[in-house]
Amino acid sequence: MTRYEIVKRSVALITLTNPPVNALSSAVRLALSKNVERAMGDPEVTAVVICGENGTFCGGADIREFSEPLQGPPLLPLLDAVEAGEKPVVAAIEGVALGGGFELALFCHYRVAHYKSRLGLPEVTLGILPAAGATQRLPRLIGIPASLQMITTGQHILAQEALKLGILDQVTQKNVCEVAVEFALGAVGMSGA
Ligand SMILES: C/C=C(\C)C(=O)SCCNC(=O)CCNC(=O)[C@H](O)C(C)(C)COP(=O)(O)OP(=O)(O)OC[C@H]1O[C@@H](n2cnc3c(N)ncnc32)[C@H](O)[C@@H]1OP(=O)(O)O
User: Fold this and answer.
1) d(C-alpha 108, C-alpha 84), whole Å
2) Is residue 59 lining ligand 1, measured as CB closer than 6 Å?
3) By C-alpha distance, which of 78, 129, 74, 85 is closest to 110?
4) Residue 191: its pLDDT value, please?
5) Residue nearest to atom 19 of ligand 1 (CA)
6) Atom 51 in ligand 1: residue holding the nearest Cα
7) Quick one: DSSP state of residue 137?
8) In 3D, which of 111, 103, 102 has the Cα closest to residue 49?
9) What pLDDT shows up at residue 99?
10) Which CATH topology does 2-191 take?
């Protein structure tokens, strides 16, 4: 459900692995929570990168679990732990970051995205509102009018627009995980390590 590896000697690379869109199922939330704790507690780890396998960051809540009672850790405390971590966490966004997946990226300290990726909050199309922090974190980044546009329409925006709005820190045409790892090393003053 997530893969944990150390790259460049000190960056914990956490990969969401839940085909087809790396949705945040109960098992993914549990594994992500454990791996964030592991990275934050490992003195050898200086920074963390979160990405998704097979060209997709995260499609949000796992819609296959919508008819079941909630199991596993709720999303918001997990995202709080990411944000409160003392080591920088970089989201490496490829494909889509939607709903809870976008919220996961918003709670990371930095966001690097592939130029073809799309971000959005489709909750409104399901008759609900984002409930894991996007309604606070997004306005802090891009202001209320642009946030309301995204929240009330559910429209996806492209990486370049997200960069212009101030959601993203960097857009790349290269391998987004590799670029995010370099970004993370730069954030802790270890560029070129
Ligand atoms: C509380 C609520 C929270 C925290 C939320 O996050 S609500 C938001 C939940 N997410 C969504 O509503 C996203 C819905 N999905 C899409 O918009 C699209 O599927 C996509 C953009 C993610 C991909 O589009 P596309 O490339 O055209 O592919 P398909 O639509 O055909 O989908 C491919 C398969 O993926 C399955 N899928 C898509 N989203 C999810 C999901 N969130 N959870 C689980 N599975 C998902 C989809 O059913 C297709 O499966 P198969 O039919 O191939 O088996």
Assistant:
1) 9
2) yes
3) 85
4) 81
5) 59
6) 20
7) H
8) 111
9) 98
10) 2-enoyl-CoA Hydratase; Chain A, domain 1 (3.90.226)
Tell me if 23 sits within 8 A of 32, measured CB to CB: no
Query: What is the distance in A from the centroid of ligand 1 to the CA of 44?
Result: 36
* Catalytic residue of the set 37, 68, 86, 123: 123
The pLDDT tens digits of the residues spanning 141-182 come to 999 999 999 999 999 999 999 999 999 999 999 999 999 999
Residue for token digits 């780890």? 45
Over 80: is that where the pLDDT of 193 sits? no
pTM of the model: 0.98
Instruction: Read off the pLDDT of each residue in 86-102 and give the average, rounded to a whole number.
Output: 98
pLDDT at 132: 96
Measured by CA distance, the residue closest to atom 2 of ligand 1 is 61
Q: How far is CA 114 from the centre of its chain?
A: 13
Of all helices (H) and strands (E), which one includes residue 98? strand 96-98
Mean pLDDT, residues 20-47 taken together: 98
For this structure, is 123 an active site residue? yes
CA pair distance 193, 171, nearest whole angstrom: 22
- The type of residue at 48 is V
